[in-house]
């Protein structure tokens, strides 16, 4: 008997819904971005250039995954592209974690978050007040593990989940 056969109930579990993997991946991405923004604006941890790139990987994943939630025809391609974005984020996070551990060299310059101004005096004031953020020094660690080192396995796992869901959708 199949699920369509009378007398047998089809699997109506919400966990069996085909949109669940994409919805979970979008929520995980929003959660990761929210955590990064909270750590910046509430916790006072200013991001370096690598940190910003890791955030953009999550934004790219969200943008890639949303069309698949809206239209089932785009689901597989959407999951594949979302997986690529997550794996790119994992690569950036892994490289960043290596720079923080001094396993290899990252940027030779530091970054700061300056906004556009109208006058030279305002620009000077902003330059003097802007935090200088080094990519090779972790601003926060938990038992010696930085945010980049935490982000590496999270992004890698999310990428693998996306690709596994894409493969299951084609089967």
UniProtKB/TrEMBL annotation:
<dbReference type="InterPro" id="IPR003752">
    <property type="entry name" value="DiS_bond_form_DsbB/BdbC"/>
</dbReference>
<dbReference type="InterPro" id="IPR023380">
    <property type="entry name" value="DsbB-like_sf"/>
</dbReference>
<keyword id="KW-1133">Transmembrane helix</keyword>
<feature type="transmembrane region" description="Helical">
    <location>
        <begin position="53"/>
        <end position="70"/>
    </location>
</feature>
<dbReference type="GO" id="GO:0006457">
    <property type="term" value="P:protein folding"/>
</dbReference>
<dbReference type="InterPro" id="IPR024199">
    <property type="entry name" value="Uncharacterised_DsbB"/>
</dbReference>
<feature type="transmembrane region" description="Helical">
    <location>
        <begin position="77"/>
        <end position="99"/>
    </location>
</feature>
<keyword id="KW-0812">Transmembrane</keyword>
<feature type="transmembrane region" description="Helical">
    <location>
        <begin position="20"/>
        <end position="41"/>
    </location>
</feature>
<dbReference type="Pfam" id="PF02600">
    <property type="entry name" value="DsbB"/>
</dbReference>
<keyword id="KW-1003">Cell membrane</keyword>
<dbReference type="GO" id="GO:0015035">
    <property type="term" value="F:protein-disulfide reductase activity"/>
</dbReference>
<feature type="transmembrane region" description="Helical">
    <location>
        <begin position="140"/>
        <end position="166"/>
    </location>
</feature>
<keyword id="KW-0472">Membrane</keyword>
<dbReference type="InterPro" id="IPR050183">
    <property type="entry name" value="DsbB"/>
</dbReference>
<protein>
    <submittedName>
        <fullName>Disulfide bond formation protein DsbB</fullName>
    </submittedName>
</protein>
<dbReference type="GO" id="GO:0005886">
    <property type="term" value="C:plasma membrane"/>
</dbReference>
